[in-house]
Design goal:
With 705 residues, the protein is an alpha+beta fold. Among the domains are: 152-317, Butyryl-CoA Dehydrogenase, subunit A, domain 2; 327-650, Up-down Bundle (Butyryl-CoA Dehydrogenase, subunit A, domain 3). It has helices at residues 3-6, 14-21, 43-51, 56-64, 67-81, 97-123, 132-139, 150-163, 166-177, 326-356, 375-410, 417-445, 457-469, 474-493, 504-508, 520-547, 552-558, 560-586, 592-612, 614-620, 625-642, 646-651, 657-660, 671-680, 691-701, and strands spanning 183-186, 202-206, 211-215, 223-226, 235-244, 247-257, 270-274, 287-291, 294-297, 306-308, 314-316. Strands 1, 2, 3, 5, 6 and 9 form a six-stranded mixed β-sheet that branches. Strands 4-8-7 form a three-stranded antiparallel β-sheet, with no helix packed on it. The protein has a two-stranded antiparallel ribbon with strand order 10-11. Strand 5 and strand 6 form a beta hairpin. Bound molecules: ligand LPWUO67N and flavin-adenine dinucleotide. Flavin-adenine dinucleotide binds at residues 151, 185-188, 192-194, 225-227, 281, 286, 466, 469-473, 475-476, 479.
């Protein structure tokens, strides 16, 4: 679909290509076969680029984290994309389930080989660290849906790194990084996903043989969902209840071989398969897994945080009981970046398409405007660009926070873990939920063509909406953050110091109402006051319920709706704050126009959320109706100010066409030509008359059925 992919069939024009693969002439579709479909770029998009008043690559560099990182990313992308093998001549989505999976494996192996042979030599293991987002982004040129290797790199390897002893790491990591073994992360079971203390798979230590016996006692204990488990992996991390010397010590991670390394047959005592069609992830062979008293060596328990000695003695090593949950925290941090990137893709597609698409008349008889000139369209789209920036910058900030806490923990200090857990939980929840909603908004903004799979918007949505559920459901994670907030509120009330991300509570506990001020800093402060107000209301409700005789757990449960809203408000304030501070910091040395447009986007985001939460502002601050009116006016002015730079802003995300994989979003804007080219690839167009006509339609129509 992108320029390099076209190279695969360079010798054939689209019409000739179609005729080659079909058996009837294009005049059936009423296309004049003397004319080529237009190969020239769309003029409206060219005009948009000409009117953009800032240096696009400056913003690209900011989003990448500096000019050197942009260069590095482009180098990796060009290595991976240069041979054109990433593209499918037959669209992935028109294949049957087996062929899709096989094709995904073919491409995963191809991509892995490119990474191993060419990218790793360039970056070293950095590619899995700070460059992993580049690896992830580039992978999208190979897969429209998901690679079956995602869990291997995304969770199997990180779990060994985070939960294995140095000896275990030096044994397993070289094999895993070289893809001699492929693994996944099997935690969720049919019966339990959220409540992991309730998992039912058991790992019972047998000191006589120095082995663990892994067992699935009932149907609900079957592992369910792990990506790449159904057909691809031969190893996996299994999270199971550890029993030794007759006592249960709770859930622990184990490395379990499930298939023969040579034949790939499931090993005796292992029952493994794929879970069937899903809304998305259909190339990721998500699987089920059960064990019948299956034995693994003692040293296959990942023993960094706790150990079982040869005689069965249990030894706790870690200073914090939740360190076994470390991989989940890591992935939640990664996911903020993941969804920012996917939202940026959707925004690019929808903004470019809106510059190409013309519809209706603003003034009777006048030419039809580009749909991006409707203010309602700008309202739908510009917040998507701003949110992609907000989440990208928040994700960089969260990564730094995560790295600092990790460094502390290496020195035995787990003091900041609760704050990291609270932050990563709510940022994961809000970023995935916002991104899914806004990607759907981008699809709606593209009208009927947005519904085409070839636009790539439906697949982006089906992927991102899953991120709201996996790695901790939205509500469940916000309730985790709420636990932290309520405790912090009580600390602040009693005059004790609180941690940096909740320091706003120290001022807010006094109970004064904040007077609205429409500056960026004023809106952020108001957002913190809204959060404080909601936390305070939740505390009051819990206390009232307890005063009326409820136990704390019941009072908490009954206050759940307010607690989730409080955690949401807290997280929104944090995102607004981080987005503002990072924008100011990162544009300090930028050219004036870059500074201006980044500031406009930031103000748009802040005003958007102020307007979305007017009820809260009126309730928890001294905001007046006049303040809301001026905020609305400012918001509309910002839409108009951003409009001329909209295409430049999405160009700054710098997605090659191969990564966007969209008929509507390609750089040259040949939307209609690409839609037709893709339609012509439909298997139903491979013959003029489908056999069902003779089998069913004709007998029906002739009354002979
Ligand atoms: C070729 C391909 C190229 C690819 C390129 C590779 C690039 C890689 C990047 C890719 C990035 C991502 C890809 C990943 C794809 C992932 C797919 C999906 C995987 C999964 O879904 S795995 C399964 C995840 N499961 C969950 O998340 C379960 C959610 N549930 C929980 O986390 C917990 O059960 C809980 C809800 C937190 C409750 O736990 P628990 O009951 O034990 O705890 P309590 O509620 O009683 O709380 C007690 C106490 O502990 C605190 N606490 C809880 N969790 C943590 C924690 N993690 N850290 C610190 N503290 C924690 C809690 O707050 C309480 O504290 P308090 O008592 O209040 O002080
Ligand atoms: C595409 C996809 C890929 C996945 N990949 C993996 C993988 O590789 N490995 C793996 O181990 N798992 C994987 N999972 C599983 C995933 O982690 C879980 O589905 C997720 O954690 C949610 O758990 P659940 O399904 O048990 O939902 P449930 O907990 O049953 O949630 C159902 C509803 O109940 C609500 N709820 C549950 N508990 C509470 C509570 N305490 N308070 C209030 N409300 C509550 C939730 O908010 C939700 O609305 C994957 C899931 C998906 C969709």
């Amino acid at each position: 679909m992108g320029t390099r992919c076209e190279g695969l069939r360079d010798s054939l024009s689209p019409i000739a290509y179609y005729e080659e693969y079909s058996h009837f002439r294009l005049d059936c579709l009423k296309i004049d076969d003397n004319k080529e479909l237009s190969m020239s770029a769309n003029e409206d998009l060219a005009k948009e680029r000409a009117r953009c008043d800032f240096n696009v690559s400056e913003i690209t560099n900011i989003l990448d984290g500096g000019i050197e990182r942009t260069k590095q990313r482009k180098k990796i992308e060009s290595i991976a994309l240069s041979n054109g093998k990433c593209c499918d001549v037959t669209p992935e989505e028109t294949l049957g389930p087996k062929e899709r999976y096989e094709n995904a494996i073919r491409k995963s192996c191809l991509y892995t080989k490119i990474v191993k042979d060419q990218v790793l030599t360039l970056t070293g293991l950095e590619v899995l660290g700070s460059n992993s987002s580049v690896l992830r982004r580039t992978a999208d040129a190979f897969f429209k849906d998901i690679s079956p290797f995602l869990l291997h790199l995304g969770m199997f390897v990180p779990t060994i790194m985070g939960q294995g002893t140095p000896e275990q790491q030096s044994y397993w990591l070289p094999r895993a990084l070289d893809f001699q073994i492929i693994g996944t992360y099997a935690q969720t079971e049919l019966g339990h996903g959220t409540f992991i203390r309730g998992l039912e798979t058991t790992a019972t230590y047998d000191p006589d043989t120095e082995e663990f016996v892994i067992h699935s006692p009932r149907l609900t204990s079957y592992k369910w969902w792990a990506g790449g488990l159904g057909k691809t992996s031969n190893y996996c991390i299994v999270v199971a209840q550890l029993y030794t010397q007759g006592k249960c010590y709770g859930i622990h991670p184990f490395i379990v071989q499930i298939r023969d390394e040579d034949t790939h047959m499931p090993l005796p005592g292992v029952r493994v398969g794929e879970i069937g069609p899903r809304m998305g992830f259909n190339t990721a062979d998500n699987g089920f897994l059960g064990f019948d008293h299956y034995r693994i060596p003692r040293n296959h328990m990942l023993m960094k945080n706790s150990q079982v000695l040869k005689d069965g003695t249990y030894v706790k090593v870690a200073s914090h009981s939740k360190l076994t949950y470390g991989t989940m925290v890591f992935v939640r941090v990664m996911l903020v970046n993941e969804v920012a990137f996917n939202l940026a893709k959707a925004a690019t597609i929808a903004v470019r398409y809106s510059a190409v698409r013309r519809q209706s008349e603003k003034i009777s008889g006048e030419p039809e405007p580009q749909i991006i000139d409707y203010v309602t369209q700008q309202h739908k789209l510009f917040v998507c660009i701003a949110t992609a920036h907000a989440l990208q910058l928040s994700s960089n900030w969260l990564w730094k926070t995560f790295s600092a806490v990790l460094a502390d923990m290496r020195g035995g200090n787990t003091e900041n873990l609760p704050e990291l857990h609270a932050l990563s939980s709510c940022l994961k929840a809000l970023s995935t939920s916002d991104s899914a909603a806004l990607i759907e908004q981008c699809r709606l903004a593209c009208g009927g063509h947005g519904y085409m799979l070839s636009s790539n918007l439906p697949l982006l949505y089906s992927f991102v909406t899953a991120t709201r559920t996996y790695e901790g459901d939205y509500t469940v994670l916000l309730l985790q953050t709420a636990r932290f907030l309520i405790k912090a509120w009580e600390q602040a009330e009693s005059g004790n110091p609180v941690t940096p991300t909740v320091s706003y509570m120290e001022e807010a506990v006094v109970g004064n109402k904040y007077k609205w001020n429409g500056s960026a800093e004023g809106i952020i402060k108001a957002a913190y006051y809204v959060a404080a107000g909601k936390i305070s209301s939740s505390v009051t409700s819990i206390r009232k319920r307890m005063k009326n005789g409820k136990a704390f757990e019941d009072a908490w449960e009954l206050t759940g709706v307010q607690l989730v809203a409080a955690a949401e408000a807290h997280c929104r304030a944090v995102i607004c704050d981080v987005y503002r501070k990072e924008t100011v910091r990162l544009t300090a040395n930028s050219s004036p126009n870059v500074k201006t447009v980044m500031d406009q986007l930031n103000m748009l985001y802040l005003s958007h959320w102020a307007l979305e939460r007017t009820g809260d502002l009126l309730r928890y601050t001294s905001t007046t109706e006049d303040d809301i009116i001026s905020c609305q006016q400012r918001y509309e002015e910002l839409l108009a100010a951003i409009r001329p730079n909209a295409v430049g802003l999405v160009d700054a995300f710098d997605f090659p066409d191969e990564i966007l994989q969209s008929t509507l979003g390609a750089y040259d804007g040949r939307v209609y030509e690409r839609l037709m080219e893709e339609a012509l690839k439909s298997p139903l167009n491979a013959e003029p008359v489908n056999r069902s006509f003779h089998q069913y339609l004709k007998p029906l129509m002739q009354g002979k059925l």
